[in-house]
Amino acid sequence: MLVNDRSAVNDTDTVGTADYEDFVASNAGRLRQLLVARYGIDVGAESTADALAYAAEHWDRVGRLDSPLAYLYRVAQSSSRRYFRWQRNRADFPGELRVTQPSADAIELLDLLGTLTEMQRTSVVMIHAHGWTYAETADALGISVAAVTNHVHRGLARLRALAAEEQR
Amino acid sequence: MNIDETLAELGHILDEESAERAEAGMPMRRARRAWTVALATAAAIAVTASSVALLQHDDNHHGTVTTTASTPPTRVTTPPTSVAPKRAATTSTLPAAPPNTHAIRDIDFKNFTYDVGLAHVGNPPLRTITVHDGTYSRGTPGNLGGASVTIRSVVFGDFDGDGNDEAAVQMQTYGDSMLAFADYVFVFKMHGSKAAFAAAQTWGARADGGISAISAHDGALYVDTNSDGPACCPEATEYRRYVLQNDALVGGIIGKHWNVDGKIIWAESPPTEAEVLWIEADSRFPTPVSYFDATAGSRYWIHFVRLTNVAGVQLVGPGGTLAEFAAGAAQEVTLPATGRYEFRAVGPAYGKAQPPTFSLWINTPDSSSFSVK
User: Fold this and answer.
1) CB–CB of A45 and B7 under 8 A?
2) Less Cβ crowding at N or C end of chain A, within 10 Å?
């Protein structure tokens, strides 16, 4: 669920600390899913923390937006650039796996996902791995549902083609 | 692999891994904070501790110090007795400088801006291009105005022997007509924090087959090129070896592999004196030796192609001279004993001062070919 229903918390046209805490409790994980899908585990986690820190500082303004999650996704995009410059290369998806023991298929698919464009990968992962709806994904990414559909379709087609190629 | 089922598994993996990062406190941020602490220690030498409110570290690892003190920072003003002691006293207390992290291997050449003068690729010509994920395209390649660039591979090695690695980038370009393609090798070396163009070579235009592969080995750049035919159907592969000297690639062909029977390797480059290159059966990287070791009963077919400033070449084994060759001579020899065999020049002819040179083919019956030059 995206946080775009502020009627319950904004009756007095003020946005307080409790609202921010509610937002973090219900959306921090979702924001992290989104950014990890796009930038990999390390940069995704870092960018999420940056975006939430920004939200805490500017909650008076961010909390009034129709979709704080989508806005913070943009904030995190800007934030992520510093890590790319710092690493001197682009995001490495998925990054190092430290705590999980994925199956061989999962490892292979993670590698294949790394070959997709960022938008294709984000769309595919959010919808097919995390179970977001097309509308939620489109809203968070700031693109149309049709665009998400295209990204998912092309991303899956490419994944299947690559997987078939690998098996040959 | 069932992609749909595996994707569902990935959701849990990514969630668990990213949650672990969040709980661990962000590795990048920890590293940046450690660096900031080091800078703060350094800055404290010159700036009073009470005035330091914020230290920032720039993204190029050089570090900049900014202060947001309510009062202007006061520098420690110890009257120097002389210039030298002042510098020594300051630098001796600074933390050790971090290692230079501007390694060329950190440069992502598949997402990189190339300003290497691709003036004759495409119409209008490409000049400075930025590749993303190893590709760049404009319009429809093969049609008017179209062009594309693909980064085929990137290898690293110390090609100039200065102790620092250089990068060699294999780039394939396709212009605005059917045959307007060319392959390049660009060599980059680090200048400060940036990779700077150092040298280039090009192959593959029209009927030339272009580059098959590049590799780095023992401080040299090896370029395998398709030859004796266009890219569709080359009849041979030429092996070339280059080193970087004065920002130029210096080297040439070291061998040739005919695709017809897959057996013959031919060394063409002019030899010096009686230097012999031994090419092992499965290696493209010859190690210069002046001999080869063989076992008794081995059979070789030897054909001397060219002799310069030399009357002939002797094959000398453990039991003495086994055979003597003149230019154009071809002979099959069976080695009588196990041991070391050398090629020795006989001459020089014509009384010239230049060293004798010769090149030859050697073919073994079991197809483990090698060449000498």
Assistant:
1) no
2) C
On whether any CB of chain A is under 8 Å from the CB of B260, the answer is: no
What was the ipTM of the complex prediction?
A: 0.83
Q: How far is Cα of residue B182 from the mean position of the Cα atoms in its chain? A: 19
Q: In B, which residues are within 8 Å of A163 by CB distance?
A: 1, 3
Average pLDDT, rounded, for chain B: 64
Please tell me if residue A134 touches chain B, with a CB cutoff of 8 Å.
no
Q: Amino acid letter at B315?
A: L
- Distance in angstroms (rounded) separating the CA atoms of residues B253 and B224: 9
A90 contact B CB<8A: yes
Residue A76, amino acid = A
Give the SS3 label for residue A83: helix
**Residue B302 near residue B362 (C-beta atoms within 8 A):** yes
**pTM for this predicted structure:** 0.38
Q: Which helix (H) or strand (E) holds B189?
A: strand B181-191
A51/A33 Cα distance (integer angstroms) = 13
* Cβ-contact B174, B90 below 8 angstroms: no
User: B369 near B363, Cβ under 8 Å?
Assistant: yes
DSSP code, position B122? T
pLDDT (0 to 100) of residue A26: 83
- Per run of 10 residues, the mean pLDDT along chain A (length 168 residues) is 36 55 84 90 84 82 85 85 60 78 86 89 92 91 92 92 82
Task: Assess A46–B contact: CB distance below 8 Å, yes or no.
Answer: yes
Q: Among B306, B295, B373, B361, which Cα is nearest to B334's?
A: B295
Report how far residue A94's alpha carbon sits from residue A111's, in angstroms, rounded to the nearest whole number: 8
CA separation for the pair B370, B303 (Å, rounded): 12
Report how far residue B236's alpha carbon sits from residue B256's, in angstroms, rounded to the nearest whole number. Answer: 7
Q: Do B106 and A88 touch (CB under 8 A)?
A: yes
Whether the CB-CB separation of B160 and B189 falls below 8 Å is answered with yes
